[in-house]
Write a structure and sequence with these properties.
Largest sheet: none
Distance between the termini: 74 Å
Order of helices and strands: HH
Number of strands: 0
Helix content: 25-40%
């Protein structure tokens, strides 16, 4: 079997190669794992009730 560099392959073959290399998240949603910046204004954080 002749080995052809990835950038010389057709777009269809490149897509197939990248699809098989892509990993599965096993039900995890990566967008929910993003840590929010502390510089962003958060109205809910401002009006927390005090524990007095």
């Amino acid at each position: 079997m002749k080995l052809i560099p990835l950038n010389k392959q057709s777009k269809k073959e490149q897509k197939k190669y990248h699809a098989c290399r892509r990993c599965d998240w096993n039900g995890l949603k990566p967008t929910t794992r993003v840590v929010k910046s502390k510089k962003v204004y958060d109205r809910k954080k401002l009006h927390k009730p005090d524990m007095d």
